[in-house]
UniProtKB/TrEMBL annotation:
Keywords: Amino-acid biosynthesis, NAD, Oxidoreductase, Serine biosynthesis
Superkingdom of origin organism: Bacteria
Family, as annotated: Belongs to the D-isomer specific 2-hydroxyacid dehydrogenase family.
Enzymatic class: oxidoreductase
Name of this protein: D-3-phosphoglycerate dehydrogenase
The organism of origin for this protein: Anaeromyxobacter dehalogenans (strain ATCC BAA-258 / DSM 21875 / 2CP-1)
GO annotation terms (biological process): L-serine biosynthetic process
Role played: Catalyzes the reversible oxidation of 3-phospho-D-glycerate to 3-phosphonooxypyruvate, the first step of the phosphorylated L-serine biosynthesis pathway. Also catalyzes the reversible oxidation of 2-hydroxyglutarate to 2-oxoglutarate.
UniProt entry tagged with the keyword rRNA-binding: no
Pathway assignment: Amino-acid biosynthesis; L-serine biosynthesis; L-serine from 3-phospho-D-glycerate: step 1/3
GO MF annotations, alphabetized: NAD binding; phosphoglycerate dehydrogenase activity
Location of the ACT domain: 456-528
Length: 528
């Protein structure tokens, strides 16, 4: 059955075409009230949104099938990321698609403020001709301070340099060399506030950037300086900004984004001269909307059809060629996680996934996540998948270790899973032959070569003659057909082990009979 995608915000129509071409079933239902969305979200594998749809924990609780949310845009503040991650839902955005458009709006704001374009327009429309009132400033030769030189900030830098501005920038995650390459001088924030004639903000809203521009910062800015925020509401203290404008300390301010959108009618900024506002249209051009809609549709299709993760904000992304390399090992990891869970000691406290051989060159995280998800599913009622597994393990106090090993071994690649818990450890290891033949090659100290699938009986016994014959007779008498059998013993012959693939699960009474056979130490039935 084709995966189903719900488009719940106003996305450019090209997105729907891309999704349909990829063989997905698409419904476009824009502007649904939260209750209506909650009522239908359970039918969808993917949700495509802009910023209007609020993807809350409550909505996600109802999203039993949802695997991925695609945000056609940058900021994902309308999605409860923690809740999505706990429920195993990948959240993707589309960085870069709207950068030029947003930077152009910031530039438009700067030009509008420095030449009083909006107020002069209103004045002319009101029948006035106030040439003196609207004398402005040239930008050439002035200093622009850019806070955040990521995708958008760096486009603005480029445009400002073309206008012969001097640009200083602050971004703690960009080196001085990278800044110099862009043609900007990297400065500390204090210097930026003090030097800039114009400040433009291009950072996400985080704990560090909330109220970044408050009354103190505004006071440190040059008299007559301009402030532009096309990033997120909440980065600027709007009340303090209104005071700084009203007092004449700032020469102008422009906001595309507000703490509350739309701002209330009595918002103190709305009545002020020198204040310019747009209704969060930073990304609203035909070009940007087409780019982000197509990007999100392609990303959703790649994830739903091929498991390729691109631009995810809550899990590491993997390019197609890496996916191809690790894909054959994911089913093996699933089996190893499941087996480890069934052999694990009580109260597991640590799961180690060790990768050796050729596979050690690939990223371990997705292999560990798949192993962990299969391991946790045996212990928990709540659904767990590769996305939610690390968060769920953390919540349960289970440490996860990912190890690349240089240990020599007999296989091209080997994945070993070790679980530690109260009173013991369990080790299992496996490899893949050819493209897809998963083989279990180690269970605790025993070397074997077994197919890890279906109903399995594990039997540990003394290394004595007759055990296997007795086993076969007992299972045969109970109507349990043995499909494959893999035998092993410890090097010192102190114990032997049989891994039997059987066509059906033995009844508890049959297991009890086997347990009573001569030389049998332990027997258990599992399913992989
Ligand atoms: N008005 C609108 O319609 C739109 C607004 N945005 C907003 O613009 C913001 C920036 O977008 P992009 O440039 O695409 O993101 P980006 O991730 O490419 O760049 C953000 C930059 O901010 C820097 N940064 C993070 N914390 C910082 C801090 N405390 N101080 C200084 N720098 C810090 C990062 O190192 C990064 O270089 C987004 O987070 C989004 O909220 C994005 C698109 C449209
Ligand atoms: O989708 C929109 O209209 C808002 C764009 C935006 O704020 C973003 O991409 O972060």
């Amino acid at each position: 059955m084709a995966a189903r995608v719900l488009v719940s915000d106003d996305l450019s129509p090209e997105a729907v075409a891309v999704l349909k071409q990829a063989g997905l079933e698409v419904d476009v239902k824009v502007g649904l009230k939260p209750d209506a969305l909650e009522a239908i979200i359970g039918d969808y594998d993917a949700l495509a949104v802009r910023s209007a749809t609020k993807v809350t924990a409550k909505l996600l609780e109802k999203a039993s099938r949802l695997r991925v949310i695609g945000r056609a845009g940058v900021g994902v503040d309308n999605v409860d990321l923690d809740a999505a991650t706990r429920r195993g839902v990948v959240v993707m955005n589309t960085p870069g698609g709207s950068s030029v458009t947003v930077a152009e709006l910031a530039l438009a704001m700067i030009l509008a403020l420095s030449r009083h374009v909006p107020a002069a327009t209103a004045s002319v429309k009101a029948g006035k001709w106030e040439k003196k009132r609207f004398q402005g400033h040239e930008l050439a030769g002035k200093t622009l301070g850019v806070v955040g030189i990521g995708n958008i900030g760096s486009v603005l830098v480029d445009r400002a340099l073309a206008m012969k501005m001097r640009v200083v920038a602050y971004d703690p995650f960009i080196s001085a060399e990278a800044a110099a390459k862009l043609g900007v001088e990297r400065v500390e924030l204090d210097a930026l506030w003090a030097q800039a004639d114009v400040v433009s903000l291009h950072v996400p809203l985080t704990e560090q950037t909330r109220n970044l521009v408050d009354a103190k910062v505004l006071a440190r800015m040059k008299k007559g300086a301009l402030l532009v925020n096309c990033a997120r509401g909440g980065i600027v203290d709007e009340r303090a900004l209104a005071d700084a404008l009203a007092s004449g300390h700032l020469g102008g301010a422009a906001l595309d984004v507000f703490e509350q959108e739309p701002p209330p009618a009595d918002h103190p900024l709305l009545g002020l001269d020198g204040f310019v506002a747009t209704p969060h249209i930073g990304a609203s051009t035909e070009e940007a909307q087409s780019a982000v809609a197509v990007a999100v549709a392609e990303q959703l299709a790649a994830y739903l059809n091929h498991g390729v993760v691109k631009n995810a904000v809550n899990v590491p992304g993997l390019p197609r060629e890496i996916m191809d390399q690790i894909a054959p090992f994911l089913p093996l990891c699933e089996k190893l996680g499941s087996l480890a869970a069934q052999l694990a000691p009580q109260g597991p406290s640590e799961v180690t996934v060790e990768v050796a051989g050729e596979l050690a060159a690939a990223p371990i995280r997705p292999l560990a996540a798949r192993t962990l998800a299969a391991f946790l599913r045996h212990h928990l009622e709540t659904p767990v998948n590769d996305v939610s597994a690390p968060a769920v393990a953390k919540e349960r106090g289970i440490a996860v270790r990912e190890v690349r090993s240089a240990e020599p071994h007999d296989y091209a690649s080997l994945v070993t899973v070790t679980v530690r818990g109260q009173g013991g450890e369990a080790h299992v290891a496996g490899t893949v032959y050819g493209k897809r033949e998963a083989r279990l090659v180690r269970v605790d100290g025993f070397r074997l070569e077994a197919v890890p699938e279906g109903h399995v009986i594990l039997c540990e016994n003394d290394d004595a003659p007759g055990v296997v014959g007795n086993l076969g007779t007992a299972l045969g008498a109970a109507g349990v057909n043995i499909a494959r059998i893999s035998l092993s013993r410890l090097d010192d012959h102190s114990r032997a082990f049989a891994f039997l693939n059987v066509d059906s699960a033995p009844a508890p009474g049959v297991l009890e009979q086997v347990r009573r056979l001569p030389h049998v130490r332990t027997v258990r039935s599992i399913h992989l």
